[in-house]
Description:
Elements: H1 2-12, H2 21-35, H3 40-44, H4 50-67, H5 71-77, H6 82-94
Helix pairs in contact: 2-4, 4-6, 5-6
Amino acid sequence: MKRVRDVIRVASWDVEGWKSPHQRRLDIIALHASRNGYTLGDLLGAKADKRISRVRWRAMADIKLKFDDSYAELGRLFNRHHTSVMHAFRRMAADPDTH
């Protein structure tokens, strides 16, 4: 039985260490937040001004690219409805230079 646990542990190991997939996603959000003068709570919270929304959208896009999460999964991660996530991706696709 120990051998199966070892295989599972090795399969979950990556360059960032022993972090859960959820924690890796939160790290990406925190990185975007800190680079733009915000906190993790700001990006996961209810604030919706233009600047913070764009930072949130970029974090969503990075997570989508790295983990291929669905809109519903991204919505749960960011405390948003999945249609809000879809709107973010439509806005970024319409004018990628401003995001």
